[in-house]
Design brief:
Strand content: under 5%
Largest sheet: 2 strands, parallel
Helix content: 55-70%
Radius of gyration: 67 Å
Shape: elongated
Number of domains: 4
Length: 599
């Protein structure tokens, strides 16, 4: 299509016609915009009205056809593309910025919502604080009132409370230290309740309501104590059991619980006490019977009628292998009185001991064991059975130990009734006195009867042995001649020269015997029969010397004989002490001086 000349108007272009191969622009516009609606006469003008022909005449197309004019310029298109590309890049940045701004708006909106809610919450909290302040003021008032009431009612309420833990322990727990403490607490509170109810003006319904509970718990506690004590009594019958260990760890450790039982159920306590007495009687009887058998297996010197003081020891018939012994010398036998050992000989050692002993050794062992066990048992009875009177405790003790006392007296009798060991019997007397002093120190009066019974066996037997020795001296004296042998001068001269003035062997035995008795009686009292026994023995000995001196014809030798014998006795008795020793020594020193002669 030919280019429109420069300066030509749109009207001119339209009047000149169009190319035959180009569609009519009006048709194109109608196809794009739709048909033109005819305007009504009364319709006002609008900005969207199509351009009037007069307006189209003013459009300058620079001499180009409408198609050419509408066709974009390449440079312009490139520039527009570059601008569009830059716009797209900046558009993404602006869109990101737009999103950030939108997010900030959302965040600020949530912050605004939170602050608004927080402000409302602060107002509610302020209201609650005010409410709490009012409530606190009311509580303080109530607390002050409660303190006043508690100050008045606290002691009363405390007196009526029995902690549930205490009741649960007493009913369900094992009998141990904690159980005993719970029982003590229960008993303490029970006494407070009983004291309150015993007051004349007391009418507490709460205290009265506790009585059934207290009775039930007390009955249950008594039942638990009964089962526990019976179980321990049964344990005492176990073989090879040490009763003192059970007494210390199982009985005395919980002695208060049995006192509680005795207070609540006296008859049951008496039955349990009797069961304990029967068990311990069996226990001590069985053990001491075995111990006596063990002691009887010890080897004891046999001192019998052949050991009478006036009999010649050289003429005594002794079995082969029999150990020798000195019947009339005390030697180291006093060590048994001075030893600091308080322990008895164990049964197995007594059975295995092959050495020889005097009778005081098994006597001391048995009685020392008896004294120790009896002291422990008596102390246990007084400490455990606290509700018993003195007479009841004494009766229970005698019931337990009477069979043992019988065993002890039987052992003492078997050791002494056939023996002429006067020194051994006297040592047993001194041991028995030591036991009596020890019992007084321990404050155990229950063995007084046994101590007296032992003395009743020992003292008469001692005097019997002294009488046997006196009889032997008397018989020996009776066998001596009453005048010198022979009547002629020759026979008189011969007998006189052959007669000796040396002390008689009987004097040696007599002096040693008296010395031993005085050593063992240095602290003897005036009420003992030692003095009368020594006087009888001394009279028989003096009669023997007088009769023996009559067999000497020459008066000087007769006096010499008496002097030498009395001098030997005085020398042997010189180191003895005590009132009785001074009396005996004075007697023989006086006799020696009466028959003093020149050597």
């Amino acid at each position: 299509m030919a280019r429109v000349p420069k300066g030509a108007t749109l009207r001119q272009s339209l009047t000149n016609g169009v190319a035959p191969d180009v569609r009519d622009p009006e048709h194109v516009l109608e196809g794009l915009l739709g048909p033109v609606r005819p305007k009504r006469v009364d319709e006002p003008a609008s900005d969207d009205d199509p351009v009037t022909p007069e307006l189209a005449q003013d459009i300058d197309f620079d001499g180009l056809s409408l198609e050419e004019y509408a066709k974009p310029d390449v440079a312009t298109v490139q520039r527009n593309d570059a601008q569009a590309h830059d716009f797209e890049e900046e558009k993404q940045q602006f869109e990101g910025l737009h999103r950030d701004i939108a997010n900030c708006d959302q965040l600020l909106l949530s912050v605004e919502t939170y602050l608004t809610s927080f402000k409302a919450d602060l107002a509610a909290v302020a209201q609650e604080i005010e409410t709490l302040q009012n409530w606190s003021a009311n509580l303080n008032t109530k607390l002050d009132n409660r303190k006043v009431v508690e100050k008045v009612l606290g002691p009363e309420v405390e007196a009526l409370i029995i902690p549930p833990a205490v009741i649960k322990k007493l009913v369900e727990g094992n009998v141990d230290d904690v159980w005993v403490k719970a029982l003590a607490e229960f008993e303490r509170r029970t006494k407070l309740i009983d004291k309150k109810l015993s007051q004349p003006d007391s009418s507490s319904a709460a205290a009265e309501s506790l009585r059934p509970l207290i009775e039930n718990v007390s009955d249950k506690a008594v039942e638990r104590i009964r089962d526990y004590v019976v179980a321990q009594i049964k344990a005492l019958r176990s073989p090879n059991i040490n009763a003192q260990i059970i007494q210390q760890k199982s009985f005395l450790r919980y002695c208060n619980v049995f006192a509680f039982l005795a207070t609540r159920q006296p008859q049951l306590a008496d039955e349990i006490s009797q069961a304990y007495v029967n068990t311990m009687r069996w226990y001590y009887t069985a053990n001491f019977a075995r111990y006596r058998v063990s002691l009887e297996k010890m080897h004891v010197h046999v001192i019998d009628q052949t050991d009478a003081i006036a009999l010649d020891p050289t003429k005594r018939v002794v079995k082969a292998g029999t150990p020798t012994h000195n019947t009339f010398s005390v030697g180291r036998r006093t060590d048994v009185l001075k030893t600091s050992s308080d322990s008895a000989v164990p049964a197995h050692l007594a059975e295995d001991d092959k050495s020889m002993h005097y009778l005081e050794i098994p006597f001391r062992a048995f009685n020392l064991a008896l004294i120790d066990n009896a002291s422990t048992e008596y102390a246990f009875l007084t400490e455990f059975f606290t509700k018993h009177t003195f007479h009841t405790t004494r009766a229970h003790f005698n019931s337990i130990f009477q069979p043992v006392f019988d065993l002890g007296l039987a052992l003492t009798k078997s050791l002494t009734e056939q023996s002429l060991d006067a020194l051994g019997i006297l040592i047993c007397v001194r041991l028995n006195q030591h036991f009596a002093f020890e019992l007084q120190r321990r404050k155990i009066p229950a063995l007084e009867g046994y101590i007296n019974g032992t003395n009743m066996l020992l003292w008469p037997r001692f005097q019997q042995v002294i009488d046997i020795h006196c009889d032997s001296i008397r018989k020996f004296t009776a066998s001596l001649p009453t005048k010198p042998a022979g009547s002629s001068a020759l026979s008189l001269t011969t007998s006189t020269t052959s007669q000796s003035t040396a002390p008689h062997p009987l004097t040696q035995r007599f002096a040693n015997f008296v010395h031993a008795i005085l050593v063992l009686s240095s602290e003897a009292g005036d009420d003992e029969p030692i003095g009368s026994s020594l006087r009888r023995l001394r009279k028989e000995y003096e009669a023997f010397l007088v009769r023996s001196s009559k067999g000497v014809a020459e008066a000087r030798k007769r006096e010499k004989l008496l002097y030498n014998n009395y001098s030997l006795v005085s020398t042997i008795l010189a180191d003895t002490e005590g009132k009785m020793a001074e009396e005996v020594k004075g007697r023989f020193e006086g006799l020696r001086e009466d028959f003093g002669v020149d050597s």
